[in-house]
Amino acid sequence: MSTLVPLPMAIPLVACALSIVVGRWRSVQRLISVTALTAVLGVSVALLVRADDDGFIVHRSGGWSAPLGITLVVDRLAGLMLVVSALVLLAVMIYAIGQAGQERQRVAFHPVYLVLATGVSASFLTADLFNLFVAFEMMLAASYVLITIGGRPDQVRSGMSYVVISLVASTLFITVLALMYASTGTVNMADLSLRLAELDGGVRAALALALLVVFGIKAGLFPLFFWLPDSYPTAPGPVTAIFAGLLTKVGVYAIIRTQTLLFDAPDWMGTVLIVVAVLTMTVGVLGAIAQDDMKRILAFHIISQIGYMIFGLGLFTVAGLAGAVFYIVHHIIVKTALFLVAGLVDRRAGSSRLSEIGGLVRTAPMLALLFAVPALSLAGIPPFSGFLAKFALVDAGLASSSWWAVGSSLAVGLLTLFSMTKIWTGVFWGEADEQPRREPRGDGRLGGPIGMVGATAALGLASIAVSIFAGSIYGIAERAGHDLLAPERYVTAVLEANE
Amino acid sequence: MTILVAAVAAVLFACGTWLLMQRRLSRIIIGIGLLGHGANLLLVTSGGSGGRPPIIDGSPLGDYADPLPQALALTAIVITFGVTAFLLALGYRSWQLTGDDQVEDDVEDRMVQRREADHAESEHPDVDPDNDLGSDLEPAPVEQA
């Protein structure tokens, strides 16, 4: 079974190489990409099922034992993240093929997208802090290319701030790695978990906070989020969707992994995380209310939602972590679906600015339906997955009696509903106040090409499936929470199972 | 020796941070380069003091330098190199498009700001609209459709 572990990284990387070779034939490129991502999805599901049975699947590259060799680990959290990310990557790829804009013109799209997939999978699989850095760089380098793929002036402008801020975060990451290596002499996470515990409390606190800053930039935590709403909306539709759905969540995953595994979750860290979480959700949702552009409203909501996940982590209880993990699963699917709808609306109406579009519920009722399901889910209306995710978190918060954090998360939920209504009235009801900048493209009853609508609908259905199968998904999340709070299990699995 | 290297890393970090604060992309790129060098130096220093090349030839184990941070630094250098090349290409593209490599403000932020200013004016009708109260917020005269 452990031979399957490297496949979610290996398949897209090999497919990327093939895709460059056949760069001239777009249909072959498409076939390779879709096949590779489907295979990754299949392997990820198999890994998740096995990880849920056994707890941990450990793979040692080249048979080298743990602290020295390169180790890959799939536990319940990593398995769940792999499955959701593979699903979303596949859906967005089909959407991009259906859209046939940037994808058709640019040879680089498919190979770069596959490198992005490799980086995302590698971040979830690695059990080594330095390899996490390499995986992040892989993912980010691909994202730099994707965000500027058209080379338009606005893309270059926002791409610059995105690249610079990511580079600063990466440099900080290397710095923290150097400090950690100097104080412990290892970069293997399981080994670090043991060695860091021997350090002085102050040094440990400094390292924990430095890592929080590094991943906080990538995840878009308050006050490090400012680059996100500026850069995401300028990229081509499918690229924005995959960034919004996945990239920040990889940062959240890294925060959860490092704060639970490497450090012993002191009380003050819980307080810091909860304060940051509440500020992140509040500032994000208030920022969203001020915007006039559909994509920017949604981009601010990413920030707001990141707050919920960090809130769950900050509680440092099984229920809190389970809620956070469930929230991430729900959020990745719903957010990607919303951005895909935004791309469809942009195409159909010629603009994504609320003041320039209106009345889409009459002209493209299908899009209205596709928007309504994830939007209501995001706002936390029962019976959608967002309600269950928020309920799990609120329940966990009440159990730990963090009243003010729970109160503000409910208020933020209300404001989220308000700004979803704002999009609804602006885009789907009423009339356009101003002329859109580009010509709208009418496409029959569906409101867009079949590939785009189909992929969006698939994600909408997936979000409904999350609420139907909430019991078993929450079960996995809860067991993942147990594992996260008992890091010695991870350490034992990695270090002591050496044959 | 370690102190010297640490001091060099500190100077590189300081200069890099200062250059990063500038508005011109060319300076920012140099700043990122310096920051990257600082971080890589720190990574090399983290292996402790130097020693013999880590090729096992029968010397006592304590004599060898720690090879791991060197390998890590090498990887980090390659990554920094690639990304810097991309950033330079981006800077060149920006120069092609605008004839300048200044990093501009977020357009949407300025629009929200302007809308706020318009809003404030319409809420206080007693304020003379020709009064140039909000003029510093409006970079160019905008016609209201």
Structure characterization notes:
The complex is a heterodimer of chains A (499) and B (145). Chain A has 499 residues and is mostly helical. Chain A has a domain at 265-468. In chain A, 76% of the residues lie in helices and 2% in strands. Chain A is built from 21 helices and two strands. Chain A is globular. With 145 residues, chain B is mainly α. Chain B folds into two domains: 2-55 and 65-98, Helix Hairpins (Orthogonal Bundle), CATH 1.10.287; 107-137, no CATH class. Helix content of chain B is 61%, strand content 0%. Chain B has helices at 2-20, 25-45, 67-98, 107-123. Chain B is elongated. The termini of chain B are far apart. The chains are: A mainly alpha (499), B mainly alpha (145). Chain A binds chain B through residues 130, 133-134, 137, 140-141, 144-145, 148, 151, 153-154, 156-161, 163-164, 167-168, 170-172, 174-175, 177-179, 181-182, 187, 229-230, 233, 290-293, 296, 433-434, and chain B through 20, 25, 28, 32, 35-36, 38-40, 42-43, 45-48, 68-69, 72, 75-76, 79, 82-83, 86-87, 90-91, 93-94, 97-98, 103-104, 106-109, 111-112, 115, 145.
Spans of chain A of at least 5 consecutive residues whose pLDDT stays below 50 are: none
Helix % of chain B is 55-70%
Integer count of domains of chain B: 2
Most extensive protein-chain contact, per-chain counts:
A-B, 43 and 41 residues
The averaged pLDDT of chain A comes out at 86
Order of helices and strands of chain B: HHHH
The number of E-state strands of chain B comes to: 0
This entry's quaternary arrangement is heterodimer
Major sheet of chain A: 2 strands, antiparallel
How many whole angstroms does the radius of gyration of chain B measure?
A: 26 Å
N- and C-termini, Cα separation of chain B:
68 Å
Overall morphology of chain A: globular
Strand content of chain B: under 5%
